[in-house]
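step=predict obj=allantoinase n=448
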Amino acid sequence: MAHAFLSKRIVTPQGTQPGALLVEDGTIRAVCRPSEVPADAIIHDCGNDALLPGLVDTHVHINQPGRTEWEGFRTATRAAAAGGYTTLIDMPLNCLPETTTVAALEQKRNAAKGECFIDWATWGGAVANNQQQILPLADAGVLGFKCFLIYPGCDGFTMIDQQQLEAALPSIAQSGLPLLVHAELAGPIDAATQRLANADWRRYETYLASRPDEAELQAIRLMIRLCRQYSFRLHIVHLSTALALSELKAARREGLPLTVETCPHYLHFAAEDIPDGATLLKCAPPIRSKENQRALWRGLHDGTIDMIVTDHSPCPPAMKRIDTGRFDQAWGGIASLPLALSIIHTDSSHRGGTLEDITRWMSTAPAALAGLAHRAGSLQSGRDANFILFDTETEFTVTLDKLHYRHTISPYMGETLRGVVKATYLRGEPVYRNGIFASTPSGREVKL
């Protein structure tokens, strides 16, 4: 039986248009005129709500198995469904064991069984000593690889130096899968931290100075050189410094296979407004200045930055060290899965952004990075019927009951945002609607 979802605003690759989204057997059959809907179809009138493809987040720390007390598949995917996401790609660290071997990948799959409200997949890790695991992980179904050029904060996932990385790059290139890089180098950070040895670590200014733009710039320059040499797909995660935009743009003009992401917190918060002791806003790389933020938005609009992903990185509240307010002691990570769409819609609307822009940044481009464009990221015939109903006009205040992830702390608490996810559909079935979740998780691992 076909279902037809009628809306005045369906966001398609051809633009936003009125019509009907025709769904049958979990698949999009067509975006058509209401007059073309089959007579026996079940009609769903979505009123003034916009229909967008389900969001895809390629940068999420689910932390299960091993650190499920931080987050887990059930809580992360519930929070994501409430935020309009239908696919999450899990990072290979903060879980135990880290996803750096095929055996660890199978443990993650076992942990996810029956727990996911939306679809998921995972990246593999490229670490100091697992070069021989790269191709087996690719064959086993990871969608790409993540590496850190600096200590990542958890001992089990080792950073990778240039020599170790170059030993892995031929296999990464052979796999055809992307390499996602945390692009900070230790040299500038170590030097800055030494200079700040006697500084007041409750001050945000101190933390910001400890992770200078130069750490990102040097790392990005290194990765562009290696991309040119080894011809692999390079993806820069959570770009924080706008000073790198010109070099990224030049690398693109050169034809290098390069993509770039940034995150809601870099686009919403600015260093000048962060109070001392506000460790809920610690992340790495750090949130920088208002002028830097404006330049990141320009980079999104001109296409230098491809996508917006959350870097959802939760932890138990005690690890944020709200008690001491010391940025050097606090865990670096911000959770935003249920709020990201509303944050970006609120902020982009002040900058001339459209629903088409948001769809490209938060659905189409991440799906392409993960190799899932054939099934996710756009409302087109033959794709999975993953879509959301989005009320673009209603405002709400961020309160505890809006968060849904395991530990309900947030630097967005009390803010007023515009745009509410009314419903999230996975393969044509509602997994979240008007504040109520499906009773049974129906998400599954998606593969290339």
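step=describe
The two ends are 28 Å apart (CA to CA).
step=end
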